[in-house]
Amino acid sequence: MEYGLMFDKLKRMIEEDPDNVSILEETIDVNLQMKYFRVSVKAKKDLDADGVLAVKNNLFDESIPVKDKKKLLAQLASVNKVEAFRTIEQYMQSPDKELKAWAVLALQESRMLIHSVLMDKSPVFISTGLGGRKNKLRYFVVFVTRNGEPFSAVQQSLLSGELDFFAKKYQAEVEEVKFSPIYATASILIPLRESVKDFLSAVINNCNELGDFLFPSFMVTNVKRLSNKEILKAINESINPETEGEETLDVNLN
Description:
elongated, two-stranded parallel sheet, alpha+beta, single chain, disordered C terminus
């Protein structure tokens, strides 16, 4: 399914039954999520619910290897009983350090399973690397200065102000804004029903009407927070005269 069609379908689901849509709130690496769901699929094959519940306390046994606890968490998340959910919930209070994110995913899956039985319908679960809150997804955004000029104090204030202004209009939440010499990053929660492109373009257009200091393009992802090196590499590779009609930004990656 094309991204645009999938996005429209999600918007309709939220409008029709917002209580049936669940968004993973925590920031969890996408690769770890994929590993968890692969283990979860295997856990459901020939699942012995009573047998899994009989060894549930192994989660709290420090002598049990982490790999075995991973499997047990996935199995408990597949058992359609409140006892299994409560066990994972209890483990989440003091999980093994390396299993905290894994346990979050297991608890979410278990919660959805219980919910589907109680409500007699399958809930919609949305997970991204950066997570979200309620009906909003978290995005990591990069704004770049025009021609690689450093941000002035006035420009920093203007960009922050415009982000807050349009966040209210789009019912978004600006969690954090950070400035580097030639780019700014922002962590923003944006409702699924809203257009991310329209929101960010409006911010840039307003800033440029007043100060003409931002490059018209932006970088945005809901997979992970980009490092300084990744951002600078993307600037050099993506912003060029052929795509935007602007001068190439000369950025040193060393």
